[in-house]
Structures are given as structure tokens and as C-alpha cells.
Write a structure and sequence with these properties.
Layout lengths: L4 H9 L17 E3 L31 E4 L8 E4 L7 E7 L2 E4 L1 H4 L7 E8 L8 E7 L11 E5 L5 E3 L1 H4 L7 E7 L8 E6 L24 E6 L2 E4 L14 E7 L8 E6 L6 E5 L5 E3 L1 H4 L2 E3 L5 E4 L8 E4 L7 H7 L5 H9 L4 E3 L3 E5 L5 E3 L1 H4 L7 E7 L8 E6 L8 H7 L2 H10 L3 H8 L5 E2 L1 E5 L5 E3 L9 E2 L1 E7 L8 E6 L5 E5 L7 E8 L11 E6 L3 E6 L3 E2 L3 E2 L4 E6 L3 E8 L5 E8 L2 E6 L19 E4 L32 E4 L8 E4 L8 E5 L5 E4 L1 H4 L6 E7 L8 E6 L14 E5 L5 E4 L11 E7 L8 E6 L12 E6 L5 E4 L9 E8 L8 E9 L2 E6 L2 E4 L11 E2 L2 E5 L8 E5 L12 E5 L8 E8 L2 E4 L3 H7 L10 H5 L3 H4 L2 H6 L1 E4 ...
Parallel strand pairs: 18-21, 33-41
Antiparallel strand pairs: 1-32, 2-3, 3-4, 4-5, 6-7, 7-8, 8-9, 10-11, 11-12, 12-13, 14-15, 15-16, 16-17, 19-20, 20-22, 22-23, 24-25, 25-27, 26-29, 27-28, 30-31, 31-32, 33-38, 34-35, 34-39, 36-37, 39-40, 42-74, 43-44, 44-45, 45-46, 47-48, 48-49, 49-50, 51-52, 52-53, 53-54, 55-56, 56-57, 56-59, ...
Length: 1088
């Protein structure tokens, strides 16, 4: 939860068989809400002048839910925590009848603010005990500490937290009990939310390294007494630990439990990897890229059935554009950049879905998976809702008062208004709270469709009742073979949902585990099943999940229609395993941890080996990007464009049979030429290029400009960090005078004013015996969006070039790449050009005249954000196919995105207004403040954020203004393989992984030498505005082609960074992949 600094200042001022259902059941939705059940718990909150969200920051955080069988009768019971109301315990009597036994059981926690709750058998007597976390404002009440209720076995409990060392006072959120040191008993991680004011610590370096007494704690169980080992175990306990979620799982597959902590506010999340010696290593920055900013509850489970736990973290980004515009305040670029530099990592205002690649790497896919936005969300739970064998996502949503409503914060609760109210009113808090908007929102359920693709099934499953929901938990409350759901709500009755799934057709198997020693419920165990001809699924027994809640200890596997589970393997907490075969489904099975095992499970199976082996560089080059901020010039840009290099060019310039390389430099850095030598080294040549160090090299090509038999070098100049008058943007032609002596020819090129070049391709297009040049313009450096042109530089001999008039190349788009190839089989190469906001364009060469035949080749509807492409005959039919790199699907930019380019306020400055297409209407993507800052005349029209909430381009601007604008559309954002069949290109699907990020580098080669073409992809773009989030979910991909010319098998290459170019070369008899990365060292990989 993110609260503005001046609001935080105010805090200082005020201080069995389950074949029960039949196919004839008629159910309108999957879940039935039991509105008139015996459960009548409501977490009612009443604001007072002394206690409210201003005096207690977490006032609306709500309570939790625990589900477990407290009396061992085979029925799951329910415990709710309340804030200003007593907690309640309900005994499950069967047939959806529950009895409130709170009073007689003695677990009400009267007169205290309860938060998280966990069912755990702490004294290992076979009965579940209850551990309740306490939060709320400071108090002298004796019950202010966390409470441990020991189960007496007769439906009564005795509070014994002090006896166990668990009577801790603080702002506890949740406790997670697990055996982190594998000594056979349950230890405890206690998660806290710092009491300190947010503003006092915002963005200060190294704050997490300073321990406090009230921070998070790791408590080791020493013979029944819990001892604080936080510091020796390397656990952070600082004052900036604003924890809201603790998610335990075996993230690296070594059978030892690891810990993921989701932190609210500005502090980043933590990933603790168990070192198997009683300590942990915090490793998030190494394994994660993008993470959520105001991280809330989280859960971990294997979402794609590859045996590795993935992580879903919730945040507060609303689902619809109206609420996003009025409820979400995004970070500025400068604030975000400062956070990164001060050690707070890459945080963004959205949910985060971290997929586990098994290589100490998590990739964030929430935008690809359609789960990035879900409202003000508290908890995620990952479980198989519909028993199809894939775990779905449930998210609880809502906050009783919209603390972040931007109109409220700007006009009602700004600093001046608050000071005035303090001077003139005795009921300041009450009035401020009454002014806050309040709107219940639906919870969200995302159905898992496979391959990390999810769709919203909230309404179809009956889970879309508007609410103010917080903690939630699942369990099979009626023992019918599906998982039911219980949700704790603020100021409204709790939701108890019965899952009405037809379990005859959507079957399951339930596993009950009985542990050994002092871990009676085998917490930390893992169960794996194989069914239906090799389908796989895995569950881990870590009950504390989501937000302030704990789920049933039983493990329920959905198996779709399978009648039998072929095999089951249980990996117990001590590493031993049990195995069973041929288990009938729709049954419950109980297993007891063995005391001995022939095999000790120690680690997971290794991943598929990459054919690339990183080696020491054959020569050294480090790209050094400039620090310009494009948003300072054009504040409506969604991303920067000054980081598109470096590019490589290669050729054998000294005729020794080995490739030589030119690598371009950034602005302020000269490019360098590396020439192979006889002693297996490379000679670095930089002198002729140093005088052009102020330029930014965007592309380069070796060719014989003057027909003298050696190779000259054309270097293109691009970048965004220049004035349109800056001659540092002039392209350069370096003439090879022999003996590796290159000299700049300053009169060879015909440009009379600078352009921003992106691509250069060479070919004798007019068939006169010398090499001509195509030059593509990237953009107008001061105005992104205005379409640019391509230029043919006709070689006139003697290193003199003139423009060849080619009208078809004028204003075709924002050009990024080009190539010459004979597409129509007439013996003359044609020109292919790609770019942003333009289709893949085909220009047929008609004896020196280029004709646009894009439509004839079936490519007219391919407008995209194309950055690169390669031509190759991937299907072996004798013609060239196209592999083109696009933005991908893990982005907020979707098919149908539109850009309007015009001087909307007639002040001499052209603006680009990019719009989302939603239900046929176009909504500007810019934040209201950005738009008004750029076009000041809109301030009165968009005075309030609510005025902008539903505003479209048509409602903001007049018809005349829109008519004057250049309008550009994007039809596709997917990186695509276009197969050429009789000169018509059709799409062929690439693996989903290729869409996880943008693609800026492609190479095609038979990597595994099986006779089929393979493709390597690379990309990433880090310099994106925080509201859209950087693209970083690629570490390079190798896609293998098969003998059917399909591309299905994909392998991650673990190349971290912004990949910009590949070169595959044979050097001294070995194959090497050279990889350039923006602002990083050149990398070398031997292809094995």
C-alpha cells in the first residue's frame, strides 16, 4: 500500500469416496455463495478520531482465515481473525453446517487487533493449535502480544505463547511454521510490517542492513522453545521491512525450504535461499528482474507443471482504465531511477507473476499472462479451482476507503487543506475519512489455460461479488473432491463459497500426510503425481499462504477426467521418499512418513544443457551508453530510444580467412575495429574512428565502395540525444587505403542536413557494376512519431554517391532494419524494410525502380513495433522466409494500439499521443498530469482526475484537431515467423517464450547440425516509463527447428542484459556466437 509522504506525516501528528455430484446437477456458476450459513463473521471497522487510517496506517488491512481440522473428525474447520472485533472459530458439523465455538474454545482474542493466523501442531500431539498474530496501535493491554492457543483435544484451547517464546509484541502480519534446518521440528518466520513512518526512510541506501528489535524474525525451535536466530541466519530485520506476504517453497529444487518476502511501499522484496547450514542467502537481485512495488500477499505453486514453483505477487493496479487513471499514482522516471541506484531494484505498480526457469532465474510475465492488474489486491492463492490439472489464480480485492483516490489527495487531503482543518476543526480525522471515496470491487479468478496464459473467469465461476476482501484460504470443506473458498471481508459478512464442480467428470485425488518426530503434519513435504499418459503435477505442504491466512494441510490434485493416478511420489521433509502406484481417483489416501529410505532425494534433475559455453573474450569491448533522458525532451514518450546499440559488422578485411569485426560505440564513445592476427589474437584499431566519438553508431556494413578490391566501411549515425542540427548525426564512409588504414571521406555522401540513421544495406540495385546503399531514417530526433523515409544512395564511382529518387520510400514509417533479397526470383534483389508503426514492407526492384508490393505479398496488415528481421529459407522450399522481432506480448501495448501525431495546441511543438484501443474507443496511455503538462490548454477540461477517467481521444480533442493528426496503428505486437509460399507470407506460430520480451537481435543457423534451421532470439528494453514497466523477461532463446520445419523446442540461453546484436562466426575451426549488449561487455560463446 503506497501512501503519499504528506499523509504519512499526518500519522506523526495523530498518533473417503467423493463421487457425490452427478452430471445432472444444474449449476449456474462454479461457486455457490452460502449467504445464509451458520457463519456470520464480519470484520467490522469503525473509524474514530483516535483510531483511523491516519493514526494507524494499516487500519484497512483486514483479517485472515485459517482452515484446518481441529478435532480430527475429517471435516475442515474455520478460524477468522478480526481487527476491532473478536476472532471466531467455527466447527464444521458436515453438510455445510457450522457451529460457532469461539467462547467455549477460548480463542476469541478479545480487545486486541488480530492480523494473521495459522493452524499448526506446535506441540506435536496430533491436534492443530492456533497461532494468532497481533498488530494495531500500541497498547498496554496484556493481550497485545501474539497468542498461541494449544489444542487440548476437547475443543478447548489454552494460551501458552510465553511458554514457547512466541509472545511477541509488534506489528505482526503472519507466521509461517516450517523446518528450515531439517532437525525434525517446526521453526517460525515471523513477518512484521514496520511501525516507522514511510517518508523518514524513503530511498536511503543500505537501510535494510540495520537490524531492529521490531523487525522480521526467524525463530528456531530449540526443544519446544523458540529462539531468535535472525541475525545469525542472515535475515533482514530493519525498519524498512514493510512485509505483507511470506511464501515458503523449495525454489531451487534442493529439497530445502526457501523464503520469499513481499514488501509494501518502497522496500524491495526478498528471496532467501536456504544454505543448508542454518543460514540463508538473500538473492533476489541476482534471480529477479522486475518486481511489484507495493507488494502485498503472495503465493507459490507450479503453474505450468514443470516441477518448479512459480510466484504470484499482488499489488494495487486497478483493472479498468478509469480506475487506473483516478486511483494510481505512478513513479516518475527520476524517482524510479533514484530507487534503482539506491538499491531498491526494479519495482513497478502492478502484480508480478514470476516464472521459475530453474536456472536461478525468475522471469516476470504478468502482462503476458493477463494478470498484471486486479484492483487493490491483498492475497493471491494458486490452486486448481476446476480440477483440470492446472493451478488457477484467485485474488482477493478491495479497500474500504480509497486512500489513493487522486482527486481526494489533490483537492481534499492536500497539505494546505489538512493544515486549515487542523486549525479550525476538532473532528479533522472524521471529516477527512468521510470525504474519502468508498467502492467495493469484485475479487478476481484467473483460469489457467496453459503456457502461462490466463483468462478472467470471475463472473463465470461466481466469484465477482463486489466486496472489501482481505485474507482468504481454500480447502475441501465438504469432502467432495474440489476446493472450496473462504474470504474475510471488512464491514461485510465473510464469504463462504462452495465449489459445485461436477467431480464425476472433473476428478481429483487427495493426499493426507502424517509426519514423523515433531512435524506431525509433514509441513515441507512435496507430492508428485503422474497420470493420463505422462501428465505431471506437484504440490508442496506449506499451509501459510496468501495474506494473513493458512490453507488446509491436505493436498488435493485435480486430474481432469483421469480414473487412475499412475504413480505418486512423496518427498518428505527429511529428504526420504515414498511411492505408490495405480491410485483410483476421487479418493482420499493417507501416508505416513517412513523412518528409513533406500534413497535420499538431494536435488532436482538438471536442466537441458545449453549448446553455448561462455568463454573468455577473444578481444575486449565494453559499450558505454550515455545517460540522456529522452523524457526530458518528449514527456509523452512511453520509452527511451537512446539505447538501441551496439551493432556489429563483420568481414574478412585482411584476407586471412578469418572474420574481422567493427563494433559501434555509443554517443561519446568511438567504435572499434578488431582485425584477426596469426597468433590467434585480434588487433584493435580505433584511430580513424576516434574523431567521430561524439556520434552514436547505429549500424555498419563492410563493402567495396570504390571497386578497388578491398572492403571499405560505412558507419551509420543515430540516437535520440542530439539536436536536429547536430552534424554528429552524419553517417560516415571510411575508405580502406590498404594496410588496415581507414580514412574518413567527408564528401562521399550526399546528405545536406543530418538525419538519424538506423539501418544501412548495400547492393548494386541498378545493376551498373558498383555497390549502392540503402539508408533508413529511424525518427526525427526531436519528434518521435513523424514518419520517416528511406534513401537510395546511388554509387557514381570514385566514392561519390547521389540520391536516387525513389518516391515509394518517402514517409513510410519509423525505420529500424533493412535487407536486399531476390523475392520474386527475377535475378535482381528487392528491398525489405521494417520499422515501428509500419508494416513489413516489400519493395520490388523493377530495373532500378522500387515499387511497393507489400500488399501483394500478404503483409499489408503487419504494422508493428518491428526492431529487426532476418531472411532465411527455414522450411527448405527454396524461397526466403522472414523472422521479424517485435515488442512481444509481455507488455501493456497490445494489438490495436494507435498513435496520433500533431501539434494539438498549435504552439509549434508536435506531440505524439499513443492510445489503447478498448471496446472500439481510443484512450490515451499518458497519465493525466503528463498530458496536461505537455498540453497546458487541457487543464480546465481535465481539471479533476475523474474528468480524465473515461476520456477518449475523441472527447479530449475536437474533430478538427484529430483530422489534422497523422494516425498510425499497430496490428500485431508478436515476434513472428512469416513463411513464404508462392510469394505470399503467412504467420507460423513461434513458442510462447519468444513473446516474453521484445526482440532486437535474431540469427538463423543450424546450431545442432541436424540439417534443420534453428533460430536464436535476443532483446529486452530497460528504459521504459515506470507505468508501463521495462521489458526484461528474456535471457536469450534458442528455438530448434525439426524435420517438419516447425519450431517448438525452446531453450533459454541465460544471457542477462539488453541484447542488441548477434554474430555467428567460424574462427579457427570453432563456432562462436558474439553477443553485444547495451552498456555491457561484448560476450563470446563457443557453440558446442
Amino acid at each position: 500500500m503506497k501512501i503519499p509522504y504528506y499523509i504519512s506525516i499526518l500519522l506523526l501528528c495523530f498518533s473417503c469416496s467423493k463421487d457425490k455430484k452427478t452430471q445432472t446437477d444444474v449449476v449456474e456458476t462454479l461457486f455457490k455463495l452460502h449467504e445464509n450459513s451458520d457463519i456470520n463473521f464480519s470484520n467490522t471497522l469503525v473509524e474514530t478520531e483516535a483510531l483511523n487510517p491516519y493514526t494507524y496506517r494499516n487500519f484497512y488491512n483486514g483479517g485472515g482465515v485459517a482452515i484446518g481440522d481441529i478435532n480430527n473428525d475429517g471435516l475442515l474447520d474455520i478460524y477468522f481473525t478480526g481487527n476491532s472485533v473478536d476472532n471466531q472459530l467455527y466447527l464444521n458439523k458436515g453438510n455445510w453446517n457450522f457451529e460457532d465455538i469461539t467462547e467455549k474454545s477460548g480463542v476469541a482474542c478479545k480487545d486486541s487487533w488480530s492480523s494473521g493466523v495459522t493452524f499448526v501442531d506446535i506441540n506435536h500431539d496430533g491436534f492443530l493449535d492456533i497461532y494468532v498474530c497481533k498488530a494495531g496501535p500500541p497498547s498496554d493491554k496484556s493481550s497485545r502480544h501474539n497468542e498461541l492457543f494449544i489444542n487440548n483435544g476437547d475443543l478447548t484451547f489454552t494460551e501458552k505463547s510465553k511458554e514457547y517464546g512466541l509472545d511477541i509484541v509488534g506489528l505482526a502480519v503472519q507466521a509461517n511454521f516450517f523446518d528450515y534446518d531439517k532437525d525434525g521440528d517446526l521453526d517460525c518466520y515471523l513477518l512484521s510490517n514496520s511501525i516507522r513512518s514511510v517518508g523518514n526512510y524513503d530511498l536511503i541506501k543500505n537501510q535494510r542492513d540495520i537490524p531492529t528489535e521490531t523487525g522480521n524474525k526467524l525463530l528456531r525451535n530449540d526443544n519446544g522453545y523458540f529462539v531468535d536466530v535472525t541475525q545469525e541466519a542472515n535475515i533482514y530485520s530493519s525498519a524498512i521491512g514493510f512485509g505483507l506476504g511470506i511464501t515458503v517453497s523449495d525454489y531451487n529444487g534442493d529439497t530445502w525450504p526457501d523464503i520469499f518476502i513481499s514488501n509494501d511501499f518502497f522496500e524491495r522484496d526478498y528471496l532467501y535461499i536456504n544454505q543448508q547450514n542454518g543460514s540463508f542467502k538473500e538473492n533476489l537481485e541476482h534471480q529477479f528482474e522486475s518486481i511489484s512495488m507495493g507488494s502485498m500477499g503472495a503465493d507459490a505453486a507450479d503453474l505450468n507443471n514443470d516441477s518448479r514453483p512459480d510466484i504470484m505477487v499482488t499489488e494495487m493496479l486497478p483493472r479498468n482504465i478509469q480506475r487506473q487513471r483516478t486511483k494510481t499514482l505512478f513513479e516518475s522516471w527520476n524517482k524510479y531511477d533514484m530507487e534503482v541506484k539506491n538499491g531498491y531494484h526494479y519495482q513497478f505498480s502492478r502484480n508480478a507473476l514470476h516464472i521459475n526457469t530453474g536456472e536461478e532465474t525468475f522471469l516476470e510475465l504478468s502482462r503476458f499472462s493477463n494478470v498484471a492488474a486486479s484492483e487493490w489486491s491483498w492475497a493471491s492463492l494458486l490452486f486448481d479451482i476446476d480440477n483440470d490439472g492446472l493451478k488457477d489464480i484467485f485474488i482477493s480485492n478491495g479497500i474500504y476507503k480509497d486512500l489513493l483516490d487522486r482527486d481526494y489527495l489533490t483537492y481534499m487531503a492536500n497539505e494546505d487543506q489538512i493544515r486549515d482543518m487542523i486549525k479550525n476543526d476538532q473532528q479533522v480525522m472524521k471529516k477527512l475519512i468521510d470525504l474519502m471515496p468508498s467502492q467495493a470491487v469484485p475479487n478476481v479468478a484467473f483460469k489457467n489455460n496453459g503456457a502461462f496464459q490466463f483468462s478472467d473467469h470471475s463472473a463465470a465461476w461466481g466469484l465477482n461479488q463486489p466486496s472489501f476482501s482481505n485474507g482468504s484460504a481454500y480447502g475441501d470443506l465438504d469432502n467432495d473432491g474440489d476446493l472450496d473458498l473462504v474470504i474475510n471481508n471488512v464491514n461485510m459478512p465473510a464469504f463462504v463459497y462452495e465449489n459445485k464442480l461436477d467431480t464425476l467428470n472433473h476428478r481429483s485425488v487427495t493426499i493426507k500426510l502424517k509426519g514423523a518426530d515433531k512435524n506431525t503434519n509433514a509441513i515441507g513435504a512435496k507430492a508428485e503425481i503422474y497420470y493420463n499418459n505422462g501428465q505431471y503435477s506437484v504440490l508442496e505442504n506449506f499451509p501459510s499462504r496468501g495474506f494473513q491466512s493458512s490453507v488446509s494441510h491436505d493436498l488435493l490434485f485435480g486430474v481432469n477426467s483421469a480414473q487412475t493416478v499412475d504413480s505418486l511420489r512423496i518427498i518428505w521433509p527429511n529428504g526420504f521418499f515414498s511411492k505408490a502406484e495405480n491410485l483410483r481417483t476421487n479418493k482420499t489416501y493417507s501416508f505416513t512418513q517412513p523412518t528409513a529410505s533406500n534413497v535420499l532425494i538431494t536435488s532436482k534433475s538438471p536442466n537441458i544443457k545449453s549448446p553455448l559455453k561462455e568463454i573468455n573474450p577473444l578481444f575486449d569491448f565494453k559499450h558505454r551508453e550515455n545517460n540522456a533522458v529522452d523524457f526530458n525532451r518528449e514527456q509523452l514518450l512511453p520509452e527511451m530510444f537512446n539505447n538501441e546499440g551496439p551493432n556489429m559488422a563483420s568481414a574478412d578485411i585482411n584476407n586471412d580467412g578469418q572474420p574481422d569485426f567493427y563494433i559501434g560505440g555509443a554517443k561519446g564513445q568511438s567504435g572499434k575495429l578488431f582485425v584477426s592476427q596469426k597468433n590467434n589474437t585480434y588487433l584493435e584499431i580505433s584511430k580513424p574512428f576516434e574523431i567521430n566519438a561524439k556520434s552514436e553508431d547505429s549500424n555498419a556494413v563492410f563493402f567495396d565502395s570504390d571497386n578497388d578490391g578491398d572492403l571499405d566501411l560505412y558507419v551509420a549515425s543515430g540516437g535520440k540525444s542530439f539536436s536536429k542540427y547536430d552534424f554528429s548525426m552524419n553517417d560516415r564512409l571510411y575508405i580502406n587505403q590498404g594496410n588496415l588504414n581507414f580514412v574518413l571521406d567527408q564528401s562521399a555522401l550526399p546528405f545536406t542536413e543530418p538525419i538519424c540513421t538506423s539501418t544501412v544495406s548495400v547492393y548494386d540495385f541498378d545493376q551498373d557494376g558498383d555497390i549502392d546503399i540503402f539508408v533508413g531514417e529511424r525518427f526525427k530526433v526531436e519528434t518521435y512519431g513523424v514518419p520517416t523515409s528511406g534513401y537510395i544512395l546511388e554509387n557514381k564511382g570514385n566514392n561519390t554517391f547521389e540520391f536516387s529518387g525513389q518516391n515509394t520510400l518517402k514517409n513510410i514509417g519509423l525505420i529500424t532494419d533493412s535487407a536486399w533479397e531476390d523475392l520474386n526470383n527475377d535475378g535482381i534483389k528487392d528491398l525489405i524494410v521494417v520499422g515501428e508503426w509500419m508494416p513489413i514492407s516489400i519493395f520490388i526492384n523493377q530495373k532500378g525502380k522500387l515499387e511497393n508490393k507489400t500488399k501483394n505479398f500478404g503483409l499489408e496488415q503487419t504494422s508493428g513495433f518491428w526492431k529487426t528481421f532476418k531472411l532465411a529459407d527455414v522450411d527448405g522450399d527454396g524461397d526466403m522466409d522472414i523472422i521479424a522481432g517485435n515488442k512481444g506480448e509481455n507488455t501493456f501495448f497490445k494489438n490495436g494500439t494507435r498513435m496520433y501525431v500533431s501539434d494539438f495546441d498549435n504552439n509549434g511543438t508536435i506531440e505524439q499521443i499513443i492510445c489503447h484501443k478498448i471496446d472500439g474507443k481510443y484512450y490515451p496511455i499518458a497519465d493525466r498530469d503528463e498530458l496536461v503538462s505537455q498540453i497546458a490548454s487541457l487543464k480546465q477540461k481535465l481539471l479533476f482526475y475523474k474528468d480524465y477517467g473515461n476520456a477518449t481521444i475523441e472527447s479530449i480533442f475536437s474533430k478538427e484537431q484529430i483530422k489534422k493528426a497523422i494516425v498510425l496503428d499497430v496490428n500485431t505486437v508478436k515476434t513472428t515467423l512469416f513463411i513464404n509460399t508462392n510469394n505470399t507470407f503467412t504467420n507460423q506460430e513461434l513458442p510462447h517464450e519468444i513473446q516474453y520480451s521484445n526482440v532486437e537481435a535474431i540469427i538463423v543457423s543450424d546450431i545442432n547440425q541436424d540439417g534443420n534451421a534453428d533460430i536464436i532470439f535476443g532483446g529486452n528494453q530497460y528504459l521504459v516509463k515506470p507505468q508501463f514497466g521495462r521489458q526484461d523477461a528474456s535471457r536469450g532463446w534458442l528455438v530448434y527447428g525439426d524435420n517438419q520445419h516447425k519450431f517448438k523446442k525452446v531453450l533459454g540461453l541465460n544471457i542477462k542484459g539488453q541484447i542488441r546484436d548477434f554474430n555467428l562466426s567460424n574462427i579457427k575451426g570453432k563456432r562462436y556466437l558474439l553477443t553485444t549488449l547495451n552498456n555491457e561487455n561484448l560476450k563470446f560463446y563457443e557453440v558446442e
